[in-house]
Design brief:
This protein is α+β, with helices and mostly antiparallel strands and about 160 residues long. It is about 30% helix and about 25% strand.
């Protein structure tokens, strides 16, 4: 994350955000929305009620996020933190429990998805980020237990 432009005219800042898939996207925070920037480099965040701008270029689609008056920024606790397996947990690999835990860890944080969102996605057959990339926005919106905002953020992040 890098803040490029602070308090210039109508903008508070433009933040360069690294998504969980490694892609980078600009996030414009507008003065009129009175958003407090209270996050640090490395924080994993879920942006609720954010505006997505998408346009076609010669090399595919470009994306940009903008604040709205209803924007909330929520930290995602524990996402991306993986601990090594304990000796007694290695036996779970045979039963598939550890593999399922790995799959769910891959989905948590994508587009701000929580553990409950990841479980809903997996119940609908979306086991990997590749599955999410191949899904349409309408497909994701039809997942029971996944709100439209999360579906939109997933598509913005993964394309």
């Amino acid at each position: 994350m890098k803040i490029r432009d602070i308090s210039s005219g109508k903008r508070d800042s433009i933040v360069d955000i690294k998504l969980s898939n490694g892609k980078r996207i600009d996030f414009t925070i507008w003065n009129k929305h009175d958003i407090e920037i209270d996050f640090q480099i490395g924080d994993k965040l879920r942006l609720n009620e954010v505006r997505l701008k998408r346009w076609e270029t010669d090399h595919g689609y470009a994306h940009q996020l903008s604040s709205t008056k209803d924007l909330t920024i929520v930290p995602i606790e524990g996402s991306g933190v993986q601990r090594p397996l304990e000796e007694d947990e290695e036996d779970e690999c045979v039963s598939g429990e550890s593999e399922k835990a790995h799959d769910i860890d891959q989905l948590i944080g994508v587009g701000g998805a929580t553990k409950a969102d990841a479980e809903a996605l997996m119940e609908s057959g979306y086991m990997t980020t590749a599955d999410l990339e191949n899904a349409s926005l309408d497909d994701l919106r039809s997942v029971s237990g996944l709100d439209d905002g999360t579906a939109l953020r997933i598509k913005a992040e993964l394309g």
